[in-house]
């Protein structure tokens, strides 16, 4: 059974370690906040200028001056701090953020990522994505394994305009978890009940199966939001 | 040094056609509402606007777009605006997209008197085309130039008559950076207080960077993505 | 994420011989008194110290100099210390003098993940020797590299358990810049408060840059040039 | 009669215009604060991180956390702000400070300044001087006309190690006021009773006398300190 989006987020939550500062991108990555273990301390960074992002507010408690990078109303936890956009990307560039989770349209086997532009379509812009992928030392991509036409999004080389080069360390899809090492997708986990042949068929880039390949295990819901 | 100005109209009186202006804000959060309304009333055209986003159809920079006052947008993300899309596709509007951190850093560089900065953002992408790449400690960086603007229009939470500014929460975003980068910086504030009423430890933008400060009025502070939790 | 550490000794336990350390402060204003005392007690030698000044004979970095713990000082001004002068003239101590703004900017560059910055300070002087000069808009600038340090020792007024810091008055100076530039940043504070007790708008150094925070004790806060007016 | 140090400061105070942000160096420049006209608003910047510097404190009111760039205890006026050293030099480099007054050991006819190092003597460092002279758009030097041996400090070229190139706009000494234009000291004012021949004799650099040369007029004491 392929994972739901919530389950992809749930799997990624296992990557969060005690003491991590984490930046969660828009879409599936945002859902990761729902599954952070209560046993660890993690601080969420929002690149529009906040460390210590909390859950969405209760109805009636929205503050228009307090939003996340997806422009959603949010809250700030005790111990949070606000800062300007330059310092926000400064701490990202300086490698102070331990983990970045992003969506993508394509990932290549050497870790290139494309997630900002589709030729022929209205281009809305890269936002902070290019800064994040160029700077973060630990990037996990959360995405669907194939596009709507069924084409693999895990490719030998990206066909769409690149957001950043050789930066993705791990990819989590509804079918599988890969580590990217030396130009190859290393299949480390598969979704419960999904056949490795199906994963292989839907992975256009170079793929190998690690010896200790295992079924994906999920973190129980225990989160912020 | 009293920098108070009495009206939004007076604050922007010398913004001419063809000016390059920066506008603070992230989405609709922390945008200079009063100054934008005044610019819309004035109808100044052929503006180059440096702003992270371009507003929505009926608010923020979207109001200026509707009147075709904007010749060029320099932004990182411009997604929420149908009129914007129409003008872009028809070729009426020029758009330059740059990474968000690069935009922030280029404003900051101007405020710090640094002519250029190095950032890894955009290396190997379209953004790098025509730009100098330089390697430090085995990592590639783009040389990006400081941004200056004829005018910076910013929004703060509180300000004093000396032009010192304090921002609230994530409405800070690009405002302090653009405040530093304007040849003329115009700040509107929700609460204008006498000099001495803000604690000098807590000031985000020192008054030296601010030329005019306006007590804003009628803040709408629209929310773009109202999101709530249930319990 | 509780970063509190119980003693100055524990805070610096892993500073090894030969380490590069930054020390905040301008003159004796805003120096990490407790951490310096602990380093003096520990007796760690062959240190490279990046600090705007070098203390006085019996206070601040002067205490470390007296014990010959410092191999090299990187500073902008080192004038107030006879033992310093003796060691310098005898060749026991190496000194690198750099402009104060360059020192500040090089620390900041590290904290902003920028490998180098351009500054006009020192163009045409001894400071420019061996450095790359580049012209922007007709003005010459030196390329100066980001400073990193194994440890940054900073002093704040208030801090919370998450490592967020607030500085007081001109005791801010280099502290927030060095706090950003340390591979390991150790902050001592006059008042340590629980997370949430500092308003997030007013934080000068976000906790992400700070690894250990110590409730300091027995602050002497010595005045170097007591100057008063008569009426 | 040659001017006293106080009178040099008094003369320089006339250069301060309403609305100026001003950085005053250590020594004679510091004294300028004593003579700022009450008819104008001027904000003093101290490069260790303060805009809005006030007078020295009353005895017993010294705050060790509040000093100026000369490490003297000072006060902060209403409307002042504190900031870190990078922003302080940032606003200087960005040209936001309207006037900088500095001491010097030598000034050359093309505006070079030497004020940080004497070969053979213990070198204490340049502090912020190199940043200030490289960045400020309007620099006035306050100094004695000659050194203790009677040698001119206004030279064809500096003999001491340079602090900055082509940056000094005006020099005020106990004998005269000069503007530096196109590689020449332009004598614009002389101290009351001082002969132009004496000034000429003590000025080693190229010097011309402007048509409207006049006696120095002093601002009455009306200041901060």
What does this molecule look like?
The complex is a heterotetramer, with two copies of chain A (225 residues) and two copies of chain B (231 residues). Helices cover 16% and strands 27% of the residues of chain A. The radius of gyration of chain A is 17 Å and the shape is globular. In chain A, the strands form two sheets. A ten-stranded mixed beta sheet of chain A has the order 4-3-2-1-5-8-10-11-12-13. Chain A contains five helices and 13 strands. Chain A has 225 residues and is an alpha/beta fold. In chain A, a hairpin with a 3-residue loop joins strand 10 (168-172) and strand 11. By secondary structure, chain B is α/β, with parallel strands linked by helices. In chain B, helix 5 crosses helix 6. Chain B starts with a strand and ends in a 16-residue tail after the last strand. Chain B contains six helices and twelve strands. The longest helix of chain B is centred in the middle third of the chain and has 12 residues, at 100-111. The radius of gyration of chain B is 18 Å and the shape is globular. Classes of the chains: A alpha/beta (225), B alpha/beta (231). Chains in contact: A-B, A-C, B-C, B-D, C-D. At the A-B interface, helix 3 and helix 4 of A face helix 4, helix 5 and helix 6 of B.
**SSE succession of chain B:** EHEHEHEHEHEEEEEHEE
Strand content of chain A: 25-35%
Give a short account of the largest sheet of chain A. Answer: 10 strands, mixed
- Structurally, the number of domains of chain B stands at 1
Class based on secondary structure composition and strand pairing of chain A: alpha/beta
Number of helices of chain A: 5
What is the mean pLDDT of chain B? 97
CATH class of chain A: Alpha Beta
Mean pLDDT of chain A: 95
Could you say what the CATH architecture of chain A is?
3-Layer(aba) Sandwich
Largest interface: A-B, 54 and 56 residues
| Unreliable parts of chain B | none
> In the CATH hierarchy, what is the architecture of chain B at level 2?
3-Layer(aba) Sandwich
Regarding quaternary structure, what we see is heterotetramer
